[in-house]
Design a protein that fits this description.
Distance between the termini: 41 Å
Order of helices and strands: EHEHEHHEHEHHEH
Radius of gyration: 19 Å
Shape: globular
Number of strands: 6
CATH topology of the domain at 54-190: Rossmann fold
Structural class: alpha/beta
CATH class of the domain at 54-190: Alpha Beta
Strand content: 5-15%
Strand order of the largest sheet: 4-3-5-6
């Protein structure tokens, strides 16, 4: 890009939510890439988060509807996202705990579109690192066991924390969670991710357009409104790494 004379580029990140791993770490990686490119490296401008944008919520809602249609009536709606350390979660966003707040809001918006006023759960998956470090819980597999014990007639798992069918969806949910549900005798359906849904693709274009032209409306569903363009100072700091 530097050699081609590009002076500015907009960056779309496939994390819809705010956290160190979902935002500031990308900014740090971009800064390192610019430094490696040296003088003349393009300015890199990351577009905002989009967890409550109609182009993200509506495809997720249609995917949940399609999954519900394969299960008995009354199936429980369960939304999953990548777990993060609780310390990282507590520091996410200007006031903290923004990661889980945004995820619950996305889950609420999807549920309202599918089953107005309906109940839903937000659970976590794909944790890593030493067991001594607390991460967000419950894990989706433990939650499936709790739902089976409660006698729910089925469960739709919607990976609303992700945008595509990568390994953490295909393995952690389609293999591990589905196997857990099968062993429990719990009817299970995994809702699709937004992937290349035309509404999601149009949303990406819209986010670019609104950054280039301030007159373009900044769309968002629900009370939280559109996300910020620039991270506030001190937002989502890097986790403290302690030596053993």
């Amino acid at each position: 890009m530097r050699d081609d004379g590009v002076r500015r580029a907009l960056v779309f990140v496939t994390s819809a939510y705010t956290s160190y791993s979902g935002c500031r770490q990308y900014q740090e990686d971009l800064a390192r890439a610019r430094a490696a490119a040296g003088p003349g490296a393009p300015e890199l401008d990351k577009v905002r988060h989009y967890f409550n944008h109609p182009g993200f919520v509506e495809p997720n809602a249609d995917a949940v509807r399609a999954a519900l249609a394969t299960l008995p009536p009354g199936a429980r709606l369960v939304y999953t996202a990548h777990s993060i350390p609780t310390a990282m979660e507590a520091a996410s966003g200007p006031g903290g705990h923004l990661y889980s707040t945004q995820l619950r809001e996305a889950a609420r918006l999807v549920t309202e579109a599918v089953r107005p006023g309906g109940e839903f759960d937000v659970v976590w998956q794909s944790r890593s690192g030493p067991p001594s470090v607390p991460w967000l819980e419950p894990d989706v597999n433990y939650h499936l066991a709790a739902l089976a014990a409660a006698g729910v007639p089925g469960v739709v798992v919607s990976p609303v924390g992700f945008v595509s069918d990568h390994v953490e969806v295909r393995w952690d949910l389609d293999e591990e969670a589905a196997t857990t549900a099968e062993k429990l005798g719990l009817p299970f359906a995994r809702a699709a991710t937004v992937g290349t849904d035309p509404r999601f693709v149009a949303m990406v274009r819209e986010l670019v357009s609104e950054r280039l032209d301030p007159s373009v409306p900044r769309r968002a569903l629900g009370p939280m409104g559109p996300g910020h363009d620039r991270c506030p100072v001190g937002c989502c700091p890097a986790p403290v790494r302690r030596l053993a």
